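The records we work with from here on pair a chain with its fold. Here is one such record, which you should read through line by line:
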Amino acid sequence: MAQGCVYLVGAGPGDPDLLTVKALRLIQGAEVVVFDRLVSDEILDLIPTGTTRIYAGKALNRHAMPQDEINALLLNLARAGRRVVRLKGGDPFTFGRGSEEAEHLARHHVRFEVVPGITAAAGCSAYAGIPLTHRGLATGVRYVTGHLRDNNELDHDWARLVDGDTTLVCYMGLVTLPEIVRGLLDAGLDPATPAAVVQNGTTPRQRHVLATVATLADQVAEAGLKSPATIIIGKVVALADTLNWFAPGEVHIEEVRRLG
């Protein structure tokens, strides 16, 4: 039996229209789709009837399937000759552990391909009217994780993250938002720096809060935002009102906006 192939496919942040042409083609031609928790229902609806679906979602302290089991599953499916799409929210190589899965497959001489997806930083910020860079406001952008393995305390070098010319995007950081804010403020970030949290970005369920770093954690708690959410900090957030173009309210989804 010929060995199969595993396609590590980025599903983007949620809007199915943001899938790449290649991603859609592979999803519709797969024999097995192994998908994560952050893949939206709208994208899952594109999987043809009869295709085997395997849920391998992970949430904080709740893993439907541990990573080593996911690695073994992908390996076994490929060795059985199956065409496998490993469907991941966002981009598989941006906080998606896709590189770990690819490394495991490579170590066992199993063919794989990587299909990039629009990462949450790009998708959620754009749908909230926030450019990641803008002349005179931000000359760069930095992505960081909001949680560490085994829920250890964040050990970021906060001083290195404080840069008025750089936009900071934090993934998976809603639970640790007070810690993130405290670390940045203690390291000298201006408390008046604009900041935002976008929940369910790019989908009809999108909600977001606009505030300052000093008020962000309280505003988010008051609004009741939940995961998945993306944190964006920097002067570019001040453009959100001017550049906001996406109107989830048109499909009767309430948008929460709190100005600090």
User: Anything to note?
Assistant: Residues 120-251 form a domain with the Methyltransferase, Cobalt-precorrin-4 Transmethylase; Domain 2 fold (CATH 3.30.950.10).
